[in-house]
Amino acid sequence: MLTGNLTGTGRVALTQAGLAPVAALIAWVLYGIGAGQAVFYGVLVALAVSAVLVWRERQSIRHPEWDQHRLIKLFIRAGVERLVLLVGLLFAGLAVLELAPLPLLTGLVLAQFAWLAAMIGHKDKKAR
Predict the structure, then answer these.
(1) Which helix (H) or strand (E) holds 32?
(2) Comparing C-alpha atoms, which of 28, 54, 35, 37 is closest to residue 115?
(3) Model-level pTM?
(4) pLDDT tens-digit profile of 69-125?
(5) 3-state SS string over 50-112?
């Protein structure tokens, strides 16, 4: 199975990747192509930010010899990287690509619910 050995953040990224086309299609049908593009971009922004977290998490898993001091520095670096990426991609979407702000932010917020959905789904599987 595809999600067999994924961590929690990996499951979230996979959920967000599956959510992107579905949310974009629904927005496109209900509100038009511009809204669909903006929602798709918003979900992709959240996916990119989650991918940085997955990358840093896998980096720490590959190095069990790292001490707590190095891991906390990696944790802080990942937080800063994610924030810079989020601001940069939102700026690109709003100022450069001139996407509609409300659908873009709706897609971003909707993708954040993937964190909740992935964790609830994983909890249900553990209960069985």
Answers:
(1) none
(2) 54
(3) 0.82
(4) 888 998 899 999 999 999 999 999 999 999 999 999 999 999 988 878 777 766 656
(5) HHHHHHHHHHHHHCCCCCHHHHHHHHHHHHHHHHHHHHHHHHHHHHHCCCCHHHHHHHHHHHH
Shortest CA distance to 114 belongs to which of 7, 3, 8, 15?
A: 15
What are the residues whose beta carbons fall under 8 Å from the beta carbon of 122, sequence distance 6 or more?
A: 8, 11
Contacts of residue 43, Cβ cutoff 8 Å, sequence gap at least 6: 16, 19, 20, 23, 24, 107, 108, 110, 111
6: left (phi over 0), alpha (psi -120 to 50) or beta: beta
